[in-house]
Design goal:
Layout lengths: L9 E3 L4 H11 L5 H21 L3 E7 L5 E7 L3 E7 L6 H7 L4 E9 L6 E7 L8 E5 L2 E2 L3 H12 L7 E4 L2 E2 L1 H10 L4 E4 L1 E2 L2 E2 L5 E2 L5 H6 L6
Parallel strand pairs: 1-11, 4-5, 4-7, 7-9, 8-10, 9-11, 10-12
Antiparallel strand pairs: 2-3, 5-6, 13-14
Helix pairs in contact: 1-2
């Protein structure tokens, strides 16, 4: 699929020097696992905070310790998260640090080795997910096949399309376009939009297999 990324539904983090420094570590093929995990966690926190900011808020007044009134905001709708196993589970601990009581569902999708098509194998979702706004978690958005299968699973449970915020670390243009074409109301958050995909569908410049590097299951070179 070709086309131009619609920036109205893709929220790219500001490309600050700090963010680029964090990316320099996680993109380094020789980075130690502890360094990879620590620096990835910091970026995860950034994209999660941005994703949470896209959820509905309402006005709220509180009295300050000096007797003044502060006109603030508070969440206006229930929220939950759904992580796409396995890599998406890396984002759960950071989210629970921000929202300790948040409900987190799971979706397992794997590609068929012959057809290369994504197959849905398992879901465990909050029973009332249809009335919640959902943060869909997966560090990588490459071709978009897994993302589309996960979004379809949420829609089948009654979640409105515009209640889904898809949170990634890295996104390829092909994956973004695939989601935008099929589900134009789904909003996406990412820390980087990559140049593209190589012949093996890995993102370029990329970081390799995020799940293997994060969980320490990558092949020793």
């Amino acid at each position: 699929m070709t086309g131009t990324v619609d920036t109205t539904t893709v929220h790219l983090l500001p490309q600050t020097n700090l963010l680029r420094a964090l990316h320099t570590v996680i993109r380094d093929r020789d980075a130690e696992r502890d360094a990879f995990v620590a620096h990835a966690a910091r970026i995860i926190r950034m994209v999660l905070e941005t994703g949470l900011d896209l959820l509905p808020f309402e006005e709220c007044e509180v009295s300050t310790p000096v007797g003044a009134t502060y006109f603030g905001q508070r969440p206006a709708a229930p929220v939950c998260a759904v992580s796409i196993a396995r890599a998406g589970e890396s984002m759960e601990s950071e989210l629970r640090t921000v929202l300790p009581g948040i409900r987190v569902g799971k979706i397992l999708i794997q590609r068929d080795t012959v057809t290369k098509r994504p197959n849905l194998y398992y879901t465990a979702l909050p029973m009332d997910i249809a009335r919640r706004h959902v943060l869909l978690l997966d560090p990588m958005l490459a071709t978009g096949g897994t993302a589309l299968a996960a979004i379809r699973a949420l829609l089948d449970k009654g979640v409105p399309e515009d209640h889904i915020v898809f949170v990634n670390l890295l996104s390829a243009p092909a994956g973004i376009l695939a989601v935008q074409y099929r589900h134009p109301q789904v909003r996406m958050v990412t820390s980087a939009i990559e140049e593209g995909l190589n012949d093996n569908a890995y993102m370029v410049p990329g970081i390799g297999d995020f799940g293997d590097r994060y969980f320490g299951t990558d092949i020793i070179r």
